[in-house]
């Protein structure tokens, strides 16, 4: 949890090696999955790996957050609690949780953060979680600046900070409010195993069964990019800025972390009242560019209000950037011309184009030949006959540059902590004092008889160079002072040993000064939950969670959808995204349009993908959409034994007094 004046750049890590590079490229904190119970089922890590990552991060006062953010069955509570203790002993700084049942357990004294899966949309929910003992809360991605500021106004910044997603893939649902995957496949998004039905193409039918859209990915969002909104988000109260991507590769994490590190450093240089949440300054051997990584094009989503163009409706794939157009298509190659004479293609580059049906077609370059003047000949990996509609005039995009990939495969960043060094005389020799920019100090001494240098003119310069040669450490010299009353000849070997001893002692001093984040105490008596009744969308999947909500005044507590007690048609997804609005069929859009006003109504629409059918219903007052359906019989049958073994019967109606 950053202090109220600190800004925290929070990066994802699929594994410890990626997490280490996130730190090296400027992350103030890294979130990573443990061995289990994380909302990315195939992105788990051994406790030993988390310990290795934490050890590296803490050198820079960066923090490690471990995701324990699935909903849990009763039989999983004890293993989850043990896992919490294991990662605590490994040096983790916080747990990111969704299941409130964990708050009923004997957890270690580790800081707790509320996952985006807890669906924090209102000031009341945010204040409740703060009062329940959560120190950092991840707000719903759908909130605008005014709504974020309203949350800020009810929180105590000394007790709870606001975290917000600023980059990466967007889940179309309010996080934690989607059960389509479980209803259709038995794979629960709330348990880390989403099948991503939102990325499928659908036929969109109106209430009369007429086609509104054909094979459109109407639930697929563009990718989040808040690069232009960082200052307004800071002013609205956000203090932890989160990059999505625990499934992403090391190149993505390096590039996107470096991109935002540069933006935040620029802000921090302009606003001295703010500070970074960790130590050190980064330099990069490349120019960060978010366009170089997989993306579905970018949107800032709802931060500045509802926008017209937030969907990646044509394809959930990465279209890349246009680089030129086809000038000739032959039997085994095609030629293209670029407007950019500096464009460089490489063997293995990922190229693509849109065919006549607006499908994105890949045309990976097996071999390329420069023709001069911005022209290139491309021999694709696949036969030309398979590249339908590739003809003269076709615009070619590049979604993978091998030059870029190779750049990020090498060492690409250097993170250093500034240090002042002062050499002074003692009764028996010399003392080197090292003080870092965080105020940590260390000493090293050498017994040495004073003798005058032969080359007085260059002696001090060479001595400063020897003492300040910190290349293989995490430090960089801010200043090297020779506080000596008379000229000293110091052998190079002595100077190097003084430097090594002082820097080793400084690292030890930093490690000794490192402190765990404090665990927040819940208020007493327990704060009442904002509502006295829940629905299955509260994701209560164990009796400890049920007891938590009962203790906070809730009287109606149904079991989570995964308990298979909602057998009829229900909302399988709640989302701020509106298909009617995106297709220009919103009644609010029609207001004032002559001849249209009153004729466009928020009637339900139907989504069809093969045998799958979903109904879209529109709640216009809060401007939300519900995707309605029911659980498949096959999912019920497959889960019958598990449901019997872990049967949940909570309050589905208010108990009789």
UniProtKB/TrEMBL annotation:
<protein>
    <submittedName>
        <fullName>U32 family peptidase</fullName>
    </submittedName>
</protein>
<feature type="domain" description="Peptidase U32 collagenase">
    <location>
        <begin position="398"/>
        <end position="510"/>
    </location>
</feature>
<dbReference type="InterPro" id="IPR001539">
    <property type="entry name" value="Peptidase_U32"/>
</dbReference>
<dbReference type="InterPro" id="IPR051454">
    <property type="entry name" value="RNA/ubiquinone_mod_enzymes"/>
</dbReference>
<dbReference type="Pfam" id="PF12392">
    <property type="entry name" value="DUF3656"/>
</dbReference>
<dbReference type="InterPro" id="IPR020988">
    <property type="entry name" value="Pept_U32_collagenase"/>
</dbReference>
<dbReference type="Pfam" id="PF01136">
    <property type="entry name" value="Peptidase_U32"/>
</dbReference>
């Amino acid at each position: 949890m950053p202090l109220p004046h600190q800004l925290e750049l929070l990066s994802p890590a699929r594994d410890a090696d990626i997490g280490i590079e996130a730190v090296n490229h400027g992350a103030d904190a890294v979130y990573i999955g443990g061995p289990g119970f994380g909302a990315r089922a195939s992105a788990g890590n051994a406790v030993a790996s988390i310990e290795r990552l934490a050890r590296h991060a803490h050198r820079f006062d960066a923090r490690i957050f471990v995701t324990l953010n699935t909903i849990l069955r009763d039989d999983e509570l004890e293993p989850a609690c043990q896992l919490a203790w294991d990662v605590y002993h490994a040096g983790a700084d916080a747990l990111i949780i969704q299941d409130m049942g964990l708050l009923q357990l004997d957890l270690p004294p580790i800081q707790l953060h509320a996952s985006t899966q807890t669906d924090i949309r209102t000031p009341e929910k945010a204040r409740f979680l703060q009062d329940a003992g959560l120190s950092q809360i991840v707000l719903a991605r759908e909130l605008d600046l005014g709504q974020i500021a309203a949350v800020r106004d009810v929180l105590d910044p000394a007790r709870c900070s606001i975290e917000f997603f600023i980059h990466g893939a967007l889940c179309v649902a309010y996080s934690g409010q989607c059960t389509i995957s479980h209803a259709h496949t038995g794979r629960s998004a709330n348990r880390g195993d989403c099948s991503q039905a939102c990325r499928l193409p659908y036929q969109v039918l109106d209430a009369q069964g007429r086609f509104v859209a054909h094979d459109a990915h109407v639930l697929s969002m563009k990718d989040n990019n808040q690069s232009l909104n960082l200052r307004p988000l800071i002013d609205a109260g956000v203090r932890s800025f989160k990059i999505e991507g625990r499934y992403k590769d090391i190149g993505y994490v390096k590039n996107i972390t470096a991109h935002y590190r540069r933006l935040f450093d620029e802000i921090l240089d302009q606003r001295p009242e703010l500070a970074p949440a960790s130590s050190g300054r980064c330099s990069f051997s490349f120019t960060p560019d978010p366009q170089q990584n997989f993306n579905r094009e970018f949107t800032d989503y709802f931060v500045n209000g509802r926008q017209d163009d937030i969907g990646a409706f044509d394809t959930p794939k990465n279209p890349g950037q246009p680089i030129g157009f086809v000038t000739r298509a032959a039997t085994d190659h095609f030629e293209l011309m670029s407007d950019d004479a500096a464009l460089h293609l490489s063997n293995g580059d990922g190229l693509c184009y849109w065919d006549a049906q607006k499908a994105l077609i890949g045309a990976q370059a097996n071999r390329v030949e420069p023709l001069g003047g911005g022209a290139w000949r491309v021999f694709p990996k696949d036969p030309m006959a398979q590249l339908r509609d590739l003809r003269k005039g076709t615009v070619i995009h590049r979604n993978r540059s091998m030059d870029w990939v190779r750049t990020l495969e090498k060492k690409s960043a250097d993170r250093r902590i500034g240090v002042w060094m002062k050499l002074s005389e003692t009764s028996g020799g010399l003392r080197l004092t090292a003080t870092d920019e965080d105020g940590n100090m260390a000493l090293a001494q050498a017994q040495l008889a004073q003798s005058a240098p032969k080359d007085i003119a260059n002696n001090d310069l060479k001595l400063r160079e020897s003492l300040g040669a910190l290349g293989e450490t995490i430090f960089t010299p801010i200043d090297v002072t020779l506080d000596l009353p008379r000229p000293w000849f110091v052998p190079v070997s002595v100077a190097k040993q003084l430097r090594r001893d002082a820097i080793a002692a400084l690292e030890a001093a930093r490690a000794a000064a490192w402190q765990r984040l404090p665990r927040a105490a819940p208020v007493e008596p327990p704060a009442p939950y904002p509502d006295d009744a829940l629905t299955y969308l509260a994701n209560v999947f164990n009796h400890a969670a049920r007891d938590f909500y009962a203790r906070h005044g809730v009287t109606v507590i149904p079991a989570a959808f995964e308990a298979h007690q909602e057998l009829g048609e229900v909302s399988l997804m709640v989302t701020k995204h509106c298909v009617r609005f995106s297709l220009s069929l919103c009644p609010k859009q029609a207001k004032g349009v002559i001849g249209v006003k009153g004729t466009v109504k928020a009637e339900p629409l139907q989504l069809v993908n093969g045998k799958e059918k979903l109904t879209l219903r529109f709640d216009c007052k809060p401007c939300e959409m519900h995707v309605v359906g029911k659980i498949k019989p096959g999912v019920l049958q497959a889960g019958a034994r598990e449901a019997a073994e872990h049967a949940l019967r909570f309050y589905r109606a208010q108990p009789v007094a």
